[in-house]
Amino acid sequence: MMFYDHHFIGMHWIWWLIVVGIILLVVFNVIPYRPKTELEENAMEILKKRFARGEIEREEFEERKKILKQSN
Fold this sequence. Notes:
Layout: H1 12-30, H2 43-53, H3 58-71
Helix pairs in contact: 2-3
């Protein structure tokens, strides 16, 4: 019978679990580190959007814009 062969008796099944576990770890640890296809917004674009939405006043917008230009 096939079940009495040494492949299914003992700890042989643990090696398959280890192999599958390693494959899953590799797949799920590699996928999140793929390069992003979206362009990241820079600070000035975020500042302009916040001003356009009315989240910040003109004075704060101008002050932060000056700070951003000085840091470049």
